[in-house]
Structure formats: structure tokens, C-alpha cells
Amino acid sequence: MAAMLLGDFGADVVKVEPPQGDPDRSRPGFAMWNRNKRGVVADLSAADGRRVLADLIAGADVCVAGDQDAALPAEAEPEEACAANPGLVYLRVPPYLGRTPWADGGESAALLTAMAGLALRQSSFDGGPVDPAFPYVSYAHAIWAAAGAVAALVERQASGYGQQVTVGGVHATMIVATSALVIDRTIPQVPADYGPGGPSALYTRYQCADGQWIFLATLIPKFQRAAFSALGMDDVLADERVGGELENLLLPGNRGWVRQRFVDAFASRTSDEWMAVLKQAGIPVGPLLDRGDWLGSPEIAAVRMRAELDDPVWGRVAMPANPVNFEATPAEIGRPAPRLGEHTGEIGWPARPAPTRPVPQSGPGPLAGIRILDLGAILAGPYAGTLLAELGADVVKVEVPEGDSWRDRGMPFIRGQRGVAIDLRSDAGRQAFYQMVAASDVVLDNYRAGVLQRLGIDYERLREVKPDIISLSITAFGEDSPFAGEPAFDPLLQARSGMMTAQGGDSEPVLLTVPVNDVTTAVLAVLGAVTALYHRRETGRGQRVWMTLAGTAALAQSEELIEAEGRQPPPRGGRDYPGPTPLDRSYATSDGWIRVQIPTAGAADLLRRAHLLAGDDPVTDAEWVEVLTAAFGAHTREQALEALAGVGVPAVPARTLAELAEDPDYEKWEVFNVLERGESPAVLAPARYARFSRTEQRVVLTPPGVGEHTSEVLAEVGLDAGQIAELVASGAVRQGTPIVYRSFAVYR
User: Which residue of 467, 488, 578, 606 has the fewest C-beta atoms within 10 A of its own C-beta?
Assistant: First the structure.
């Protein structure tokens, strides 16, 4: 999928397969993930096949390799490939990071989410691990890997040299769960047994009198207070147990009775009635719909996210398009996935000439020297800024003088940036902003449709200030669609796109604890930014780039949404979804949980050899669950894992976040660093989201206070001390102080 994204943007992508072909050729996802590619067969056990691969690598800009544990021929090993082609960006996309800790070493979103703490983080009825019903972490993995490769290509435009880039499954879990990985070790982790709607009564789904579900998305205080009034429940806030403090609603002693008040209120009227009341009050709310309708919905049509191709295997296939929209250089989807070996013998690239300049010294990230103005608020926009800072860019968070309304709780998503507070509604503030634009490369925003124009900072105006500026905008449904005015909170897209009902299956719909659409959109924004930067260095031209949460909600369910005659229905979840089959799911042990993927063929024999099965072979699913529940429950987690490893069965522990913090491999891979908090105890926070062999970022990504760097940044863009003082005195800008992050009760 990472290579697919590069192909959508115009790269000539060659898929190299063994004679027996990619084992995923029978999956409907193959038709999407291999579009726009040419196909070559190379038998890497034979000299001719290795020579074909070596010739391709010698002329390539990027080599993408997936399985880090696989035995590659010498020609395809990263060190030898990069020595033969010094300009090569060698992108490694392993299922885990380092040695894959499950038996077959294959890519598995289920095993990864269990091992990385996400399964036990998902809200549920019983507090045990929950499997994702669709592999959102794998899709985010692909996008971030593609972004890392393009960032390295941007750096190569200046240095002439490539490098190794490693984006593993562990990095993908850091991407999707970055806020959960800010760990305050003074606070004990408790089971996430809040129910499938999460811990907050103000940010969850409710069933109405007609049986339909709607999502109440009151994330910020102004919407929360308005919701109490609209629902006729102001007395809840006045209750002495709450004392008017919204944070108190999340206290364990208040969750149950407050939630029941909301349940009773919504059950009193139909979904249409409540939607009308809440929308009239300006409160974000939306319906829960079915996943199968999303790709054919008017929302997807409005953002041009449906593509169709004539596939050689599946026939006519409908699939999600590419959600990153470049106005000057749009993505194209024109070639179906290749037949096995379709282009063998047709492809010959000249070897890339070796750079003539010396190898540059290691730099602080591949985007060092790039300045980005981040106008984003709440989550997707600011998080894109943090990820761009991880790649070495100088990212400036530009916010209103009173600050982003969610910046304290959203601290994990603004790290690595400098803070400027500025009133863009004032003429003086806007002129100061224009001077910042003139000294910048990218302006990123996630405003609602029409706001940029009202503020005078839309792309056409920014281009007058700096002709080669790149403007990157995130909205919910685009700026010119019938849905442009709809609110853009992640769970509203989870609800509308069918994610919640798919995860819940035949049980209640599930709010995914991971903000799938927000974090995936942030990564797509990074991919859009680095691709536009690459294009600008090639042509000298900037452009406008835009994407939508609606488009993300399609890409983040890519295989699940594919429409093709004869395909099997995609998996659906269920109550506290443990996995799809008795042999492929989570089980409790005497002291924890494990996630197993027992091969169907010979399962009983394997388990007997592992001394986990005695007596007659189970026949029905219910018998398998009963037998395996008893077998694993009689062993400790480590005993069960050791027995399964001894017979080659893929299995991992379902770990807590606290266990991750003590993992020596995580320490070696720099998954965490220490974030100081003044007099409060330090917390752990995500460190390196990717590894670059030559230009890896080294700094600790810390969050800025509101306007903490206002004077510093304005001085850098040419304002003198008197001008800055005048702006501060007039209120057009604010000079602030550092932030001290405090811990919050979880809200989802």
C-alpha cells in the first residue's frame, strides 16, 4: 500500500514477485494496493532472478521491502543496495520492529495491536483485549512509510544521497495511539471497562426511541454546556457530585448515573427529532450508518473518493481513490494491478549515476530547513505539525491569543512546535502573519470551509505574498460539497462511514478508542506536504493541497469497502470482539491475556504437541472456545506463549501500556523519551516515529505554551523589537510562557 500511494502520485512502481506470486493475490485488496504498478517475476533463488532485481535496484529511486525477517539475497540487502546505488532510498516496512515476536513473522494487525497495548486500551464491556474489525493500524503504517520515503527524497534533492528509512509496525502503533503513549507512571492503569461507547457521556453514541443510534460529539466545553441545556439536563451540572466542573463528569463515581441520564433522555424521542434539536443548538451530532453504503454515498462522491478499474482477476472493481488532492499535480488511478509477471523482461532502467559531492553529515531530520505554519486546531491539523517536526521541519503553531481550545488535553498532538499567538481578525495581526508566510514553505490548516477566505489567508491571497507557497487544508467534507458545513470530529466520521457499526457487529456500535480518522488524516497531510515539497524543488512551483476526513474514512477501510463481484463480505466485529474464529482470537490466561493465530490445518495436533489439548478433537466453534478457554486459563501467560512458540504457533501477550514502558526493545528503539513537567513528575512520551540512517531527528518533542515563541518568530521574519512591542500592546499578538502539561482523565 505504501508503494501504491507513490504510484498514485506518478512514480513508476514495479512490483517484484516470486514465481508463485504474492500470497495476497486472492484478496480483493490486492486490486487496490497494486494499482498503477507494473509486475515482474524474479526467482531470487536463481542467479538470473537476482540479477534482474539487482539491475532494478541500481536504477531505482526507492526500494520498498516489507518483511524485515525475510532472507533477502545480498543484492537486495539494504547495505549492499545502497552501496551500489548511493542515491537509493531504501524503505523498510517490517511488521513489527527488529525481530518480529510471533512465530511466522507475517504482517498481522491483530497480533500487533495486542503486543503494542492497543487491544487492552479499547473500551469494552469487560475490560479485556478487543480486536480491530479492520486493520486501521496497517493502513496508517503504509501512509506513514510512504511519507518517510518521500521526505528522504526531498532531502536527497539537496544532498544527492539516499538513505535507509525504517517504518515498522511499532512506529504505526505510535502514530495511531500517540496520546495513549504519553504515560504518567504515577497513575495506575485500570481496565477499559467503560462499555463500548467509551468513558465520556458527552462524547459517545446513544440509541433513540426509533432504535436508531446517533453520536453526540461534544468534545469541547462550549458544546458540552450547550448539550446539557438542549437535552434539558442542566441539573446534572448543578449536582454537588459534579459541582459545575465538566472534568468531574469523567470521575468513576459519576460515569454511571450521568450516562444513564443521557440514555434516558435520548430514548424519549426519535433520532430525527434529536438530530434537529441538537443541530439547531449548534451541537455536533451525526447518524450511525452502515459501512457497506459508504463508498457509494453522496459524501464520498462529493470528495471524489470512489475509483473504478477493470481488474484482470476481479473484473470491474470499485475502490477508494487517493484522498490527497493536489490542484496542480492531481493523483491518477489508471492502471489495474498487474497479472503475475505481466511486464517481466520489459523493464530496464539505467543505473543511477553516483553523486559527485561528499556524503553530507547527519542532519536533524530529512526536512531540516523547511518552515511550516500550523494553523490547525484540536487534533488532525496540529498532529500533522508534530509529525512534520519529527521529520525535522521548523513547525510554528499559530493560534488565537486565547489559545487552541483543546491544547491542554491535546498536548500530545502539538509537541515539537514553537508557539505563536496572533489575532488574524485584526489588520496588524494579519500583516504580521503575511510576513511569516513570506519566510515559510507550507501553511497548514483545518478550518471549516469558508474561514480562510473570511480571514484573508486563503491560497490565492497567500500566493500573492509568496508565489511558491504550499497551502494544505483539512476539512470534513471539502470546501465545495453539499456537506461542507458539517462538523469535523473523528467519531462523527467513524459513525457515518460505518466504522462503529462494523466494529460492533451484532452487538452495540463501538466508539474506537483510537481517533482513526483524525490521526490517519494527519499522516495523509504529512504525505501531502512532503510530496508537494518534492514537486516544488523539481519545478519551483507551489500549489494548494487539500484532503478530507470523509476521504480518510474510506482509505482507512480500504479493503473492507472494495466492491467486486464474488468477493466475500468483509469481517465484522461483535461484543468485546476477541477475533474472527476460535483459533484466531484472544484468550485469558491465569494472569493476563494472549492473542493467538492457530493454523486451521492440523490445529488439534499442534495443540496436543504443545500439551494444551487432551481428549477428543473439538468440532464446533463453541467446543473449540470452551476447550481453549479452559486450556489457556490453566496456564500463566508466559507458560502458554512458551508452549505455543514451541510448536510454531503465532501468539503474543496482550500487553498493558505500563508493560511497554518497561520493554528493553522499546528503549533500544527510542519509542519513548522523558518529557519534563516542572515540579510535577515527568511523563514518558513518544520519541522517534521512524528511523533514518543519516538524517534522524534527535530532539525531544516538547509542546509550546500559547504564544511562547511569538517574539522569537516575529524577529526571525524581520520585525524589530519596537514593532513586536506595539503588536503585543495592541493585542494583535500575545507573548506567552511555557506550558506545564498536566494529566487528565481519559475521555475516550
Answer: 467
Q: Calculate the alpha carbon distances from 172 to 135, 665, 744 in Å.
A: 11, 16, 24
pLDDT tens, residue by residue, 650-701: 999 999 999 999 999 999 999 999 998 888 889 999 999 999 999 999 999 9
Same CATH topology for 371-488+515-556+701-734 and 584-658: the answer is no
**Which DSSP string do the residues of 374-443 spell out, in sequence order?**
E---TTHHHHHHHHHHHTT-EEEEEE-TT--TTTTTTGGGSTT-EEEEE-TTSHHHHHHHHHHHHT-SEE
Instruction: Name the residue ranges covered by the structural domains of the chain.
Output: 220-283, 371-488+515-556+701-734, 584-658
Are the CB atoms for 343 and 38 separated by under 8 Å? Answer: yes
Decide if 104 contacts 186 (C-beta within 8 A).
no
CA distance 291 to 720: 55
183 vs 131, 302, 412, 522, 742, CA distance in Å? 22, 40, 11, 22, 11
β-pair partners for 419: 397
SS3 annotation, 369-381 = CCEEEECCCCCHH
* Beta bridge partners of residue 326, listed in sequence order: 545
Instruction: State pLDDT tens for residues 438-453.
Output: 999 999 999 988 899 9
End-to-end Cα spacing for the chain: 29
Give the pairing of strands 213-217 and 285-287.
antiparallel
CA distance 664 to 372: 35
What is the Cα–Cα distance from 118 to 654, expressed in whole angstroms? 9
Q: Say how far apart CA 263 and CA 260 lie, in whole Å.
A: 5
Q: In the structure grid, which three cell numbers stand for residue 148, read together?
A: 518517510
The whole-angstrom separation of Cα 721 and Cα 713 is 12
Express each pLDDT in 131-163 by its tens digit. Answer: 999 999 999 999 999 999 999 999 999 999 999
d(CA 708, CA 739): 8
Alpha carbons within 13 angstroms on the beta-carbon side of residue 586 total: 24
Q: Which CATH superfamily is domain 371-488+515-556+701-734 in?
A: Crotonobetainyl-coa:carnitine coa-transferase; domain 1 (3.40.50.10540)
Q: CA dist 351 to 171, 468, 691, Å?
A: 32, 32, 26
Angle between helices 136-159 and 169-176 (to 10 degrees): 110
Against a cut of 0.90, is the pTM above it? Answer: yes
CA pair distance 484, 480, nearest whole angstrom:
6
- Rounded to whole angstroms, how far apart are CA atoms 449 and 73? 52
- Distance, CA of 200 to CA of 218 (rounded, Å): 10
| Beta-strand relationship, 691-692 and 13-17 | unpaired
Reduce the DSSP state of residue 258 to 3 states and report it: helix
Contacts of range 610-619, beta carbons closer than 8 Å, 24 or more positions apart: 610/643, 610/644, 610/646, 610/647, 610/649, 611/643, 612/640, 612/643, 612/644, 618/582
Average pLDDT of the segment spanning 511-525: 97
Please report where in the chains the cell 511519507 appears, as a residue. 147
CA distance 572 to 590: 29
Residue 127 has which C-alpha cell?
475490560
Distance in angstroms (rounded) separating the CA atoms of residues 663 and 652: 14
pLDDT tens for each residue of 676-686: 888 888 999 99
**CA distances for 386 relative to 165, 383, 396, 521, angstroms:** 19, 5, 10, 13
Torsion angles phi and psi, residue 736, rounded to 5: -105, -165
Secondary structure percentages of the chain, helix, strand, coil, to 5: 35, 15, 45
The C-alpha atoms of residue 642 and residue 623 are separated, in whole angstroms, by: 24
In whole angstroms, what is the distance from residue 552 CA to residue 322 CA? 9
